[in-house]
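Q: I'm writing a short explainer about Peptidase for a general audience and would like to include a description of its predicted shape. Could you first generate the structure from this sequence?
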Amino acid sequence: MNNRRLVPFIVLGVITLFIIAGISSSLFYTIEAGDRAVLFYKFGAGLDKENIQGPGFHTKAPWNEVYVYSVREQSRDENMDVLDKSGLSIHVDVSVRFSPVSDKIGYIHERFNKDYVNILVAPEVRSTVRQVMGRYTAEEIYSTKRAEVETTIKEECEKILIANNVHMVALLIRSINLPEQIKAAIESKLQQQQEALAYQFRLDKEKSEAERKRIAAEGESRANLIINNSLTDKLLKMRGIEATLELAKSPNSKIIVVGSGKDGMPLILGNN
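A: Of course. Here's the predicted structure. Afterward I'll give you a sentence or two in plain language.
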């Protein structure tokens, strides 16, 4: 009898569980690490751009909408044909890395919706690449000023993107394809420049070596001149007498004739 009274409550409980399970996706939501969410209050203030939902478990009214954005760093490749300063067509592959400003995704959603990459990022990158490369020649883009071109594109594109709450991390020119005849001419010119630099290096080295030898010869000549000027007759006689006195102290037998040498210098006669 008591079990029959519980049946309606059991049925009601089961029905309630099914209802809750059915609408649970509208009541609860989870934000993963690296994501952020913005809420749209259908019967309230509309899009809440200021209160961004961070990672974790959240609840909401069933009629409110949740828009989840990845705030991780993203990458986009762009292939395009551009014209250089002289009007020459160049095909370039560009890779751009970017991420939305996490606490500004409400403003991104308001202006561009979740398709902001195709609406904002890609067009701005392509436009900036064309504008910047149009200031340089194909040779500069291909060889001498490639790093400068990359830096300029990044700086100019970043100004536009950050104004729309997107941070530009990096921009890289992956490849540059020129018409074969133009490419061959540029590579030939670069090779000739390298050969000219190598030849100039050898010349400079030989000039340096010749200068070193000249300076060494001049130094040796001055030293000899100083020595010759200092060797007077009196000095030579004095040195000779000093040497004779030293020899006289030697235990070896010898005959010293004073004043018998040339210019009155002592003459030494030995038995060896």
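A: For your explainer, you could say: The beta strands are 28-31, 35-41, 46-47, 56-59, 65-70, 74-83, 89-100, 166-177, 254-257, 267-270.
Q: Perfect, that's easy to follow.
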